[in-house]
TrEMBL record:
Assigned keywords, A-Z: Decarboxylase, Lyase, Pyruvate, Zymogen
Gene Ontology process terms (BP): phospholipid biosynthetic process
Record-given protein name: Phosphatidylserine decarboxylase
Classification via PANTHER family: PHOSPHATIDYLSERINE DECARBOXYLASE (PTHR10067), PHOSPHATIDYLSERINE DECARBOXYLASE PROENZYME 2 (PTHR10067:SF17)
Length: 298
């Protein structure tokens, strides 16, 4: 894969992604020496924990200002001043001002759970692939539950990919009552398209957390957070059993790129047209948390 292209919902243009750590990523997944390193070290949790520890050190504060400039982040959205971050990791999982991510108010809508690049599958039983035609991950491996696999086999799925440059807190896409977060351990491969085009099963086998959200309008929604290389940890901030509003914070990722999945029961959601059309072209749609991704089916 030479370039990663996505469609920006706001500018209505096709953009080329500026990949953080692009050279290292292409070396790891595109060379023999890199693949040896990947299997011996990079995919292992110890490597990501070590990198996360590095990003906790006070000396990493000096990386913050150049990062903001390089990736053209809007610091006026941050809930605190740039100088208040004690290290790069604090900056990475920063909070934003509430007005920076307004939540779509329609009672019939469901919203994106994270800032990032999104792809949808309206019907999992008819999917012809995500990033590459014909290449799809195994649902039973992903969910590790025969009951859930049966229930969502013809359901609808949203994959949201967060790059290191993105806001890294994830939110509830609809109002409801969340259950416990179930951890399934696994390796920590990159979830960048460079890696996924080689092995889409990464999404089904990486370390992941699964939460069931009981909602009045959309039935039972599965919310997944998927770890990746250099993700120090997946941190949940919600309280099990307490009702949540649409757009309420669920948790955050520490340093690294990562992904979330939102899976609906069959016939519950109609995704927005721009999301469907770009997904048909195996191209991601960039949109921010709180903006609508679809609506309740009639």
């Amino acid at each position: 894969m030479d370039e990663i292209r996505y469609f920006d919902r706001y500018s209505q243009t096709v953009c080329t992604e500026k990949v953080y750590g692009d050279e290292a990523l292409r070396w790891t997944y595109g060379t023999v020496a890199g693949k040896i390193s990947l299997n011996a070290l990079v995919k292992r949790a110890a490597f990501s924990h070590w990198y996360g520890w590095r990003m906790d050190q006070p000396s990493t504060r000096k990386k913050i200002a150049p990062f903001i400039k390089e990736y053209e982040l809007d610091a006026t959205e941050f809930a605190c001043d740039v100088d208040d971050f004690a290290n790069f990791n604090e900056f990475f999982y920063r909070k934003l001002k509430p007005e920076a991510r307004p939540i779509d108010a329609s009672p019939h809508s469901v919203v994106f759970p994270a800032d990032g690049r999104h792809m949808c599958v309206p019907n999992l039983s008819e999917c012809n692939g995500l990033f590459v035609k014909g290449e799809m991950f195994d649902l039973s491996s992903l969910l590790s539950s025969p009951e859930w696999t049966r229930r969502y086999a013809s359901g609808s799925l949203l994959l949201s990919r967060l790059c290191p440059v993105d806001y890294h807190r994830f939110h509830f896409p609809a109002a409801g009552t969340p259950g416990a977060s179930r951890l399934i351990n696994g390796p920590l491969y990159s979830v960048n398209p460079i890696a996924l085009c080689q092995n889409i099963q990464i999404l089904a086998t990486n370390k992941r957390c699964i939460t069931e959200l009981e909602t009045e309008a959309f039935g039972r929604i599965l919310l997944l957070e998927i770890g990746a290389t250099c993700v120090g940890s997946i941190c949940q901030t919600y309280t099990e059993g307490n009702a949540v509003a649409k757009g309420a914070e669920k948790g955050y990722f520490r340093f690294g790129g990562s992904s979330t999945m939102t899976i609906f029961e069959p016939g519950r959601i109609r995704f927005d047209d721009d999301l469907i059309e770009n997904s048909r072209q195996h191209r991601e749609l960039y949109a921010r948390v709180g903006d609508r991704m679809g609506e309740l089916t009639n």
